[in-house]
User: Fold this.
Amino acid sequence: MERSVYLKRFVRRTSTLTYGWFETTGPQPIDTPPNFSSFDDIQLGDLFLHRTDQKVVCWIREYSPSGAVWKMILPGDNGTHNEDFSCRILALHSDGNPTWVLPKTVKRYKRLTRAKLADETA
Assistant:
């Protein structure tokens, strides 16, 4: 029997968006987020992140005809769950937290990462 997990909902507010996420860390990847059935604070559009030493896996809470579901989402995917997010792309900020950014910001992040890698190898 799957047990329910209590997790803190982190919230980020920008000038135009407010979104939340939950996260766990463990040595092994997981296939789905834990059971949130007793958790009242979860909202459509919330993210769930599971971190291992090797990677971060993300899911987004979306509506389906059978009720709210967790759908896997990758950094670089558009936020199709809400029109406010549809022109934004999911990215992981340098602090590891999820952020919804405009496409031009993703390009800037990639440029900065390449420059940092070049400096480290020089």
